[in-house]
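Per-record layout

source: Elaeis guineensis var. tenera
name: NADP-dependent D-sorbitol-6-phosphate dehydrogenase
length: 311
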Amino acid sequence: MAATITLSSGYKMPILGLGVWRMESKSIRELLLSAIKIGYRHFDCAADYQNEAEVGEALAEAFQIGLAKREDLFITTKLWNSDHGHVVEACKDSLKKLQLDYLDLYLVHFPIAIKHTGVGTTTSALDENGVLDIDTTISLETTWHAMEDLVSMGLVRSIGISNYDIFLTRDCLAYSKIKPAVNQIETHPYFQRDSLVKFCQKHGICVTAHTPLGGATANTEWFGSVSCLDDPVIKVLAEKYNKTVGQLILRWGIQRNTVVIPKTSKIERLYENYQVFDFTISNQDMDKMKGIDRKYRTNQPAKFWGIDLYA
C-alpha cells in the first residue's frame, strides 16, 4: 500500500496517484482497473479532461466486481474556469458523471473565472481577438465560499486550490472558513518552486505535483517543452539507485513531502511508477537535485488561451 499524507481536513490522501489527463476514453477502463489491481488508490480527474463519464464507468465496474470499495479510493476532480459562478451545479455534474455520492477532494482548477458556457461543457470561450474571455465579476473569494458549501452539503470531504501562487494562496488563507487542504501545482526537477512548496507546507496545505515528470513527450508535443527525463544528473543518480529516471524523479517528489500524480497510458509504466517505495534518495543526492532547477514551466495554456496568465 502506498504511503499517505494526512490533510488539514483530517482525511488521508495517498502520496502516489494516477492522473487521467489526456487519457483516451477507450483506454480508461483497462488502465484504471489495472491500476487498482497494482495498488493505486488515488485518482486525479477534472471536468476539463472530458473523460469523467468513462472514469465513472470504470470505477463502477471496479466496485461491482469487488476490486475495491468506494471508501478505499481517493477521488479528486476539479471545478473548471467557466463554472466559478455555478460551483454546486458543476460539482453535482461531476459526481453524476463519476457515479459517486461524494468526492474526496474538489479543487478550483485555475484561479480565474471565465465566461460561463453551460455546466459541464468546460470550454474556454475566446473573445473577438482570440483572447480568453475572462469574467471580472466573480471573485475567487466568492468561488471559495461556494466550495466550502460543498463540504457542509456532504458532497465533498476536502477542498483545495490548483495553480495558485503564493499571493493567491495567502489571500485564500485569509478569507477561508475552511482552509484549502491542497494546492495542486506544476512542480518537477526543472521547476522546483521551493518557496511556494514551503509556504504551502508551512500553512498546512499539502502540495500535489501535477506534471511531476516534467510532462515528458506529451508536453513536448503540446507546448514544445524540454523534459527533465533527459537530464544527465538525473540519469547518473537513477543508475546509482538502480532505478529508472522516472522512478527517481517520483521518489524525489515524494521525499519533498509532495503528492505525485504521474499520468501514463501504458500498463507497464503503471507498474514502474508504483515501484518507488523500496528506496530512499540520500540527503546529499537530494541536494544535487536542487542544483538542476531551471525555473522552467512546461504547462503553458497561453498557447490555447491567447493570453499568458502567468505574465
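summary: Strands lie at 4-6, 12-14, 18-19, 42-44, 74-79, 103-108, 156-162, 182-186, 206-210, 259-260. Residues 4-304 form a domain with the TIM Barrel fold (CATH 3.20.20.100).
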